[in-house]
Each structure stands twice: as structure tokens, then as C-alpha cells.
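Aim 2, interim progress. The first record below pairs a target sequence with its C-alpha cells.
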Amino acid sequence: MRSLIDILDLSVEEIDALIVTACDIIANPDKYAECCKRKKLATLFFEPSTRTRLSFEAAMLELGGSVIGFSSANSSSAAKGESVADTAKVISCYADIIAMRHPKEGAALVAAQNAEIPVINAGDGGHCHPTQTLADLLTVYREKGRFSNLTVGLCGDLKFGRTVHSLINAMSRYDNVKFVLISPEELKLPSYVKNAALKGKGIEYVQTTDLEAAMPGLDILYMTRIQQERFADIDEYLRLKDSYILTPEKLASAKPDMCILHPLPRVNEISVKVDADPRACYFKQVLNGKFMRMALILKLLEEAKR
């Protein structure tokens, strides 16, 4: 049974094929309106979500399927102590595919090992978030027309930022991609990501704390939120939370065609004044996420038939 736990579960060729499908969905939505008729998606969200959960639900509904599930651990049997493994086995009796978010790293893998249906990791703790990466990639493709020969700046919480980890793993497989890692010293990219995705592949990268100095060289700027829920010490969070705030003034030195991405939700790391800038692509990302999740659901359900 094929599941998607990590973006590296998909080959470059498979990602490219998903992008082709997503673009066809955008161009020909009626063609896909009943592709998942009589199929059910279970959204198992043990952690809060707006975009990811509703994006999956909208994706399945627009494919003609239906949705069941829960939006918090408190409204599931997890509150009674049920294990992730047992939950996956139970839901396999009711649905055709699962999208699961969980605060613990590795929970989606446990679900996939115990489910009888495909499982999509919708975010597991600070580990990874592969479908956000698919949304990011479709946005880059639609804005830039390519994945190669780009300089990607990643700014904010690079330590706990699962979207950052997944995006680095994905884009490091394309030619001549350079990374600029912008963060406070306390929130630097973990060594295990750096060693596997960058050093291990001989990929060029720079680490800095200075966003404004890095700005002129960037083709993509991926802003991230400093995540309060990942901190054990609230005082440390309060000290770091406003480390980077993107404003129109700070964009003065940026390339005119630079893309500004953000996985959302934002708090105050991007000023609302930036929203009117044509380089702001974060709300486009939200829509692109729905199309890529539609393409992924179709792929996994089709493979499940084999």
C-alpha cells in the first residue's frame, strides 16, 4: 500500500507528474469532478489546522468524494488513550484514504504501517510536511517555470520548521539550486537535515542571521513563523518571536521578480503592507495546495487499486 510520509517518498519524476496533473485540474476542473465518486477521505487532525485540513477536504469534495474525520485529538478516542496504530486500523474500515496531522514526529509512519489504506502525512511535529512542499513546488513552478538555477532563501524557524525541512529535501534534487539559511543562532537548520540534504550532496548553502544582506541575491524568499507551540521555554519564544519582520522597505533591494512564500499562518513576520506587492505569493500557495492535494489523492487511490 503506497503512502506519502516524506517528500522523498516521491521521485522527481513523480513530483513532475503531479504538477502536470495539477495544472490539468486547473485548466479542466469539470474533467475531474467525479473522479472520486463514492470514495471517502478521513482527515485525522490531532493538532490544529486551518489550511491543510480544509484544503484536503476541499480537494476531495471537488473530486466528487466525501470526507469524514475529526479536527482535534480531544474529539477522538485518542483522548481515551487509543494508540495511533489502533486508530489507523479502525479508520481503514470506514475510509479509502487518510490525511493525518499529529504533534509527534513519526506518528504518520506508524499510521501507515498499520492502516489498510493509503496515509498522507499532513504534518508530524517538527519533522516534515510533504503536501505543503507540493503546494510550494507548484507555486514556484507557476511563478518561475522551473526548479533549477534558483537561489532559495529560507527565513525564520529553521530548527522546528517542518515545511522548511521538506522543501530543502525536495529542491535539493534539482540542478544548481542554492540555499541561504536565515535564522537566529538558536533556530538554525538541524544538522541531520543539513548533512543529508546539503552537505551530503555537495549543494551550495550559506548560513546567516542577516535577512537584509541576503535579500538582493534571492529568487525565492520563504518566510516562516517562529512557532510558539514548539518551545518548552516561553521566555525563549518571546525573545525570538520578532526576529524577522518583512516590510516593503526591506524589499527595496530584492529582485523585481522574487517570489515571497510563506506556509501560513503568519503572525507578524510579514507585514500586511507586503500583501499588495506582486511578489507576494503566499495566498497563491494556499490555492495551489488544493490542486496538488487533488493530484496526490488521485495518484494514491489509483495505485491502491493495483
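The second target in this work package is listed in the same format:
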Amino acid sequence: MSENIQNDDFVARLKSYFDTMVVYKDLNKNSFISSFKLPSFMRDYILKRFQDDDGVVDVDEAVEFIRTFLPHKNDWNALQNRMVNQGETIKILAKLGIDISIAKGETSFRLPDYGLGSKDTVIPRRLMESIGEELVKSEERWGVIELCYIAPEDGDGKGKIQLMDFKDFCPYDVDLDEYKDARRQFTLDEWIDVILGGVDYNALGYSDKAQKLAVIQRLLPFVEKRVNLLELAPPGTGKTYLFGNISRYGWLVTGKVSRAKLIYDVAKKQDGIVAMRDFVALDEIREADYLEEPELQAAFQGFLENGKYRATDNHEVNIDASIIFLGNIESSLMDEYKNMMVELPKPFRQSQFLDRIHGFIKGWELPRMDDDLKAKGWALNSEYFSSIMHELREDPTYRAIVDELVVMPEKADTRDSEAIRRLSTAYLKLLFPHVRQPRDISKREFEMYCLRPAMNMRSIIRTQMGIVDEGLRGSDLPQCRVRDFGADSDA
């Protein structure tokens, strides 16, 4: 294992090319902030705000800021008292969702972290006219919110908490072109370390590049639309943390989830989280009884295939989210040539469902999380990096490059070829974001770090399909190759 000290030249370049987007992370030393249970993007914002040039945090000021603007849910009664009985307007950083009532012609909001529901709130029409477009972009958004209490107008009325203002929490300017250009200043090995630091991992804690790349597989759905993955792993490898804490654009489902919450709420006429998020990770699928429901199975098969679901006769849900299925299985089953699906819900034991999953992650190849793997050193701010990954999803140029580079054999299975292209595109975005045309990357590097890993991930799905369906046993994955554009320099 490498000595756990960052290279001075690497740190200097990181600070030079990313400037204010770099923060000193020490998840062991700064454990004081963990007690507030903040998502990592909020944690990094606070650390950056209250640390000096050497990365030393003013703990007292940081704690005071958190207590003032990020109050604990146990403080909600005190906040309500200030609004209702003392007539104060309060300003806090919080996660907010909105509900639009067609019947009443009113818009209300909810603060899920404080248990405040939409029946006790209101958003004035004038405010919706000015900021409503921002609020409806996703199911819930972090922002700086101002609240006050509106007393009932008559004896039959009902008091409400009113939203007075909302400013989206986006404290960093994201320039995708600058990010792409900065990649040129780092070797591939260094860039892998940059990525890991951006998602709270200590790159120096891993034993080799293979382990690092195994972790990076999990980020493919962060940068590419509709990349569907299945990861089976032992407990303790950090998958729940990564999907649940790094990006505000994703959603981790733990426990039971309804069709209404996930896909479409017929009563509210409202799209679910798969239509609002970049990715949705379904955790602990071995115990996910809801996946046995026939209606939900049919919905999954539809939108995993083409990103659409006909919710009602006159409404179709359009879905760009990547779907990630996460599960823990017995160690004796952690073998791609055995039936790994035997303990999973029925859909995973059907080839037609598995076929719609693009790739498999062998989670048992990732080390268990320990203190050595937690971020320690200068790294990209997680909020900034998650925003970069969000922006990369909208860039179509990488797929065009992959389509030019990858040569498929004749009569290749459409789902196989699409899965390979989609996964290769995600790898290209993560590892070689500076590539603007096919000649910008060497044939060797594209094959080694994009195409071959994509084929391996899809191959496991193909193998499992043959195990659960004897009629597909022995069917081969298309043997793709890379078109040679004459590029021979390493990125």
C-alpha cells in the first residue's frame, strides 16, 4: 500500500487548475461534522467556508453556522414558536419539495427533514411566478429558504407557514470547458485519484489501480443517462454511502417504496423520483418485496428498455434516470459463473428483465471500507464534482465519439451493443473528459479503459441470463473492436 502522503506537485496542480473548488478533507479528523448528519456536498461547502489555506477548520465558527442555518429536526418546535408566537421571519438551509393542487389552484411545500407537510404550508402565486420554474425541476431541492407565519383570515380559516423566498443551493460556478481542459494537466493515474477524492475516497489507501477502477464503476450512472447496473457485494464496501450522500441529483431507496413514489402518483397526477433524478439506487434488493408486484415489474421492464412508462391513458412518464440495483448476497454465490440471482426477487431470475440491465459490478472486488480509505487530503469539493457529473450527462459529443470508435460485428444483438456503447461512453466521460474527437485518445487507452471494461460488465449479465434461461446458454457477447484513427499518444 502506498504511503499515505499526497505528492506536493499533484496538490499544487490541483489547486492551480481547480482553485476554489478544492477543499481539504479529513473524514476521520473532522468527525465533529458527522454528528450533524449532513450530505457530503453540504459538508464540503461548510469545510471550505471555515478552513484556512492549510486546511485547518475553525470548528467553533463551523458549528455556529450549522446550528444557525442548518438546525436539527429537534429544533423545529422552537423555529415554529419564533414564527407563530413571536412574528419572526426565519432563514435556513433546507431541502424543500413542492405540491401543486389542481383542485384548489394552490401550491404548497414540504420540508421533509423537519416533518412539515404541505397541508400546513403555502407558496404565494407571485413567488411561483418568479421562481416556480426552479422549484419544479426536481422532486426536492436544497436551498436557502425564508419562512414566516400567516395567521388565519377568519374564524374558519387555517394558519399557514408561508414560503417568502427560495434561492437554490449552488455555491459554485460550474464551467465544464475549464474542467475538461484541466484534465490535460494530469496523467490518467493522477486523474483517477482526482475522481476518487471528489467522492470522498482516499486514493492512497487502495492497493492498486484495479481496486480504484472497481470503485469508479459505480460512478458510471452519475455521468450518463439511463445506464442500468446491478451490483452484488458483501456488506461494508461503501455502496450505500456513495449513492446516498455524494450527489444531490440522485436518490437512494432503502426499504419499501411505492409505485406512486417511484414512478407516478395517479392521485396527485405527479411523476415519481425516476423522472426527477439523475439516478435512483434501489438498495437491499434481496429483501425488496415490492419488486415482486406485477404492475411494478411491468413498469420497470418498460422504462429500463426505452425510458418511458405509460402511467395513464393520457400521460406518459419520460425517464432519463439511471437505475442501480444494489444487494448483498452470500459469499458462496459471489461467482459470475454461478447463479447469483437465486436469492433475489423474481424479476432478476428472468432473462428478459436481466437483459435490460446494461452491466454488472462485482462488488466483492472492492475492499471493505476502513479509515485508510476515507478521504484525507486536498480534493475536489463533492458538490462541485457532483455538479460536473450532472452536467456531463447532457453532453452528447462523447457518445458520438464512441459510435465512431467502436466497430460492432454484423448482426450483433441490439441490447448488447447498446449496453456496451452506453457504458463505454460513461467511462470516456469520467476518465477522458478532455477528448473532443476520436483522434484525441489512443486506441490502446480507449480499448483498455473504456471498451474492454464495458464488455466485461455486460458479459456478466449475458452469463447470468444463460444460467437463469437455458435457452440462452452459450450465446456469445459481440466481440467489438476499436477503429484505428491513428492516435497513439497516451492521454
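The radius of gyration is 24 Å. This observation will shape the mutagenesis plan for the next reporting period.
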